[in-house]
């Protein structure tokens, strides 16, 4: 009965076009009605408690850092640096897209922003060089979804807050899976582009590469600084957001001099609007999470999954399949907000490490950003490349399958996540 009321109220509200945050509030009220205790005071108090979290301060700073990075020329220099090394290879611009996607993922943490920035720079070049545009756009879209996995990841921050899991450990655990996603795209691109007739760029000499490296050094050391600071305990994830924000501003304004001070106001406003949406979603999700716990909905879900509870790998595989299916209908944030409080008690009961689950759960949700019909990154790339959704999907499939294979490899071999985490944590 509880599951029916929860899913019915949620799906009904979404079907009527109610924004996700308010749909979650409707779910909360429905669960209160089921328990026979409607109290608006509790609702308002829980909203305030949901937003009153120190780790959430990282979100506005990382959002602002991403905006400053794109406006200050950091993204452009990352692409230029990659071009000098691999632009002359067959399919070289695809390799540039993959390298830039991984590096920018370690700076901004936003899939849509990364895909839009890289697409705007590379799609015109790939079109002129004779690359298949839908395939190129599909590669860049698939590269963009690495951003929520590699730190600093806004998705991992949100999951850590809702699930009460160490954000620092989530950040470190996301490094290897994110790199594996990039490697999978590399092999997929090698396969699909082996017979490509596209033009290659002239080979750059080492002088040009050195100049591009010197020009881009400020952009290239940023990910290493953030991850190194987290690993050695120099700053917390929240403080890392402040560091990234200040660094992106100083480099863009005073080193590259592509960030006029007059642009700061619209950049800050854009970051503030995005942050407000995310934090309000989290606040309403935590109300639902609290009521989900009171209504014992997780125990009912656990009973449904009981045939798989004795086998951690099989249980994870079943959950990942469910999340993949949900991700085709819901966007990243709603899936994260709705399923985290439902699944976490099941994960703990089964004895699965919450950090390991969190990384795979976020990876799965990130892949949902490029699954039709809802995937927001798909819509971004359609606009950037000026192609239809149908054409984009034709080019995307090899890369989507490559990332799904990585996901289920990590389900089968958890040590690929946990062993590097132990090394990074204790060395």
Automatic annotation (TrEMBL):
Its main location: membrane. The keyword Metal-binding does not apply. Keywords: Cell inner membrane, Cell membrane, Membrane, Plasmid, Transmembrane, Transmembrane helix, Transport. It comes from the Bacteria. Residues 8-415 form the TRAP C4-dicarboxylate transport system permease DctM subunit domain. Pfam families: DctM. The chain crosses the membrane at residues 6-34, 54-75, 95-125, 137-164, 170-192, 212-234, 240-256, 268-293, 313-343, 355-378, 398-421. GO terms for molecular function: transmembrane transporter activity. It is a multi-pass membrane protein. It is found in: Cell inner membrane. GO terms for cellular component: plasma membrane. The complex comprises the extracytoplasmic solute receptor protein and the two transmembrane proteins. NCBIfam families: dctM (TIGR00786). Part of the tripartite ATP-independent periplasmic (TRAP) transport system. Belongs to the TRAP transporter large permease family. This is TRAP transporter large permease protein. It comes from Sinorhizobium fredii (strain NBRC 101917 / NGR234).
């Amino acid at each position: 009965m509880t599951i029916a009321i929860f899913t019915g109220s949620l799906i009904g509200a979404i079907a009527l076009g109610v924004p996700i945050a308010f749909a979650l509030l409707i779910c909360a009220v429905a669960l209160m009605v089921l328990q026979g205790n409607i109290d608006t005071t509790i609702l308002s108090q829980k909203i305030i408690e949901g937003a009153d979290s120190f780790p959430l301060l990282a979100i506005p700073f990382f959002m602002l850092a991403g905006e400053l990075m794109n406006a200050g020329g950091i993204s452009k220099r990352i692409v230029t640096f990659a071009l000098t090394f691999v632009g002359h290879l067959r399919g070289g611009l695809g390799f540039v897209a993959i390298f830039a996607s991984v590096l920018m993922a370690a700076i901004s943490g936003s899939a849509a922003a990364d895909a839009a920035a890289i697409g705007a720079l590379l799609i015109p070049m790939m079109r002129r060089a004779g690359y298949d545009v839908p395939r190129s756009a599909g590669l860049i879209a698939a590269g963009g979804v690495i951003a929520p996995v590699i730190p600093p990841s806004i998705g991992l921050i949100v999951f850590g807050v809702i699930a009460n899991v160490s954000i620092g450990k989530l950040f470190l655990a996301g490094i290897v899976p994110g790199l594996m996603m990039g490697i999978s795209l590399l092999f997929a691109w090698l396969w699909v582009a082996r017979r490509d007739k596209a033009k290659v760029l002239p080979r750059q000499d080492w002088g040009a590469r050195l100049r591009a490296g010197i020009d881009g050094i400020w952009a290239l050391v940023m990910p290493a600084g953030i991850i190194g600071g987290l690993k050695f305990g120099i700053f917390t994830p929240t403080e890392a957001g402040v560091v990234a924000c200040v660094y992106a501003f100083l480099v863009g304004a005073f080193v590259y001099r592509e960030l006029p001070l007059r642009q700061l106001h619209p950049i800050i406003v854009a970051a503030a609007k995005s942050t407000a949406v995310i934090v309000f979603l989290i606040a309403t999700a935590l109300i639902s999470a609290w009521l989900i716990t009171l209504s014992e909905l997780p125990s009912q879900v656990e009973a449904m999954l009981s045939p798989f509870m004795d086998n951690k790998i099989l249980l994870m595989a079943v959950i990942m399949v469910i999340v993949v299916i949900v991700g085709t209908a819901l966007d990243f944030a709603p899936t994260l907000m709705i399923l985290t409080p439902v699944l976490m008690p099941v994960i703990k009961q089964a004895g699965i490490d919450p950090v390991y689950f969190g990384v795979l759960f976020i990876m799965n949700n990130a892949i949902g950003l490029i699954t039709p019909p809802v995937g927001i990154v798909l819509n971004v790339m359609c606009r950037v490349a000026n192609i239809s959704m149908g054409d984009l999907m034709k080019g995307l499939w090899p890369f989507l399958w490559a990332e799904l294979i990585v996901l289920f490899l990590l389900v089968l071999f958890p040590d690929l996540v946990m062993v590097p985490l132990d090394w990074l944590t204790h060395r």
